[in-house]
Amino acid sequence: MFSKKVATAVAGLAILLTGCANNNSSKSNTNQPIKPFSAQVTPSNNGLKQQISGTSTKGSKVYYQVADNAKDSTTIKNKRFTITLPASLNTRKVTVSQKQNLSKPIKVTVKKPKVVISSAKFAKNFNNSKKMQAKMPTKTPKLDRPLDLMFSPTTTYHFLSDETHIYSMQLEITDITSSEVKSHVSAMASGLGIKKADLTDLVDQAKKNKGKSQTKDIQGYHLTTLVEGKKLTVNVTK
Fold first, then answer.
1. Helix and strand totals (H; E) in the chain
2. pTM above 0.70, yes or no
3. Which of 40, 83, 162, 189 could form a disulfide with 199 if both were Cys (CB 3.0 to 4.6 A apart)?
């Protein structure tokens, strides 16, 4: 796992780099006809991940290589597979094959995600929320991997961003019973400019259906909530 400190602190918030994800949920369509072999970029419900999904009617694994990195593999389940990559602003070339030697491959280009919102707009709306005392920074460092903004030992925001734009985000609260849930869900909704009731409803659905991702598209945002154990994650992508 890639992780190191960024030598910047904003309003007392610790900023950390991370290449980890908290779930591997996806929006793959299982109703499509099965092709002997296919691979393409598909939307991810995890704000810290990008993914390649596909089909394979041969073997139990699919093999892949990201640029010149080491080869890796993923398991085929019901003739379908998903390759999960850390979200990045860098374009990556991925070679996907049914064979371990990567012969007869499909070449997949994974580009940076679509812009979710400008950093300044999100911060302004977030900071105007009466629910929050700590402030969201209007600018963030340009990084090739997601960073963390820790508001407390319980609550962390994960962002894939450059100096001016946020490309994906995830709110992580490690205790679903914490009083911080209500205030941060409200502030996040304000930051995005959506109705607090809509995001609260999606969080409530996740509480009632633990372990199952709850998704909804609102005002152009793809929102995904998930409760696993005591941990809540709210993901925002486009």
1. 3, 16
2. yes
3. 189
